[in-house]
Amino acid sequence: MSTPMVQAILDGRKRMTRRIIKKQPPTRQGPLPYGFGYWTHIATLWFFPNVAPYIRIKCPYNQIGSKLWVRETFMPCAITGEEIYLYKADGELNNPLIELMEKQTWKPSIYMPHAASRITLEITDIRVERLQEITEEDAINEGVIKNDLAPYYGYKDYLNKQNDYGCGTAVQSFRSLWESINGIGSWESNQWVWVISFKRI
Predict the structure, then answer these.
(1) Cβ atoms 103, 85 nearer than 8 A
(2) Which of 74, 103, 184, 186 has the largest count of CB atoms under 10 Å?
(3) Which residues of the chain have pLDDT under 50?
(4) Helix or strand or coil: residue 22?
């Protein structure tokens, strides 16, 4: 996960994540009626004229009750005589270990070994929906930041490098977060996504 989202988990704000279904169901021009059903980790999407009657997809993140370990940006540290790990989500300023490091190089989360992971999540629910179907409640559970202090009322705009709180709703904030991770225009594509709820254990 990205550093802001790891921080959201540590703060207890993030209880849900959305992941793009890699093999998207076929679509057609114009509105597409659809429905979906799911049983722990199997989603069945069924469609109407001119489209395959149904597609069955297995969730790659396992099923309800499964444990997930979180990868995050990290730095191995062996100054103390044993290998420990530093985490970018904890902040870089005033960290004495970082100041002592000869090589201050953060490693991308994709390279994190299981042994370095400090966060374990348990899946509590899985469902499938279109990206833009996200509700205000779900957007808040995705961990977007709200500011109640004048004059910065509103939700964080993740596309604004000045940490602006110009989003009036949590959904607008999540849209900016999604596009900051997946690229401009990724919201408009409105892809099918896995919606995974979890709790930290």
Answers:
(1) no
(2) 74
(3) 28-39, 49
(4) coil
Q: How far apart are CA 72 and CA 97, in angstroms?
A: 18
Do the Cβ atoms of 126 and 150 come closer than 8 Å?
no
pLDDT for res 102: 59
Terminal CA-CA length for the chain: 17
Cα–Cα nearest to 73, from 111, 100, 102, 99: 111
pLDDT of residue 50: 52
The answer to whether 75 and 104 have CB atoms below 8 angstroms apart is: yes
pLDDT digits (tens, 9 = 90+) for 142-195: 999 998 886 678 999 999 877 688 899 999 999 999 999 999 999 999 999 999
What is residue 26's predicted lDDT score, i.e. its pLDDT?
66
For residue 122, the cross-strand partners are: 67, 199
**Count of H-run helices and E-run strands, the chain:** 4, 11
Q: Where are the beta strands (DSSP E) in the chain?
A: 16-20, 35-39, 42-46, 54-58, 67-69, 74-77, 84-87, 120-130, 146-147, 154-155, 192-200
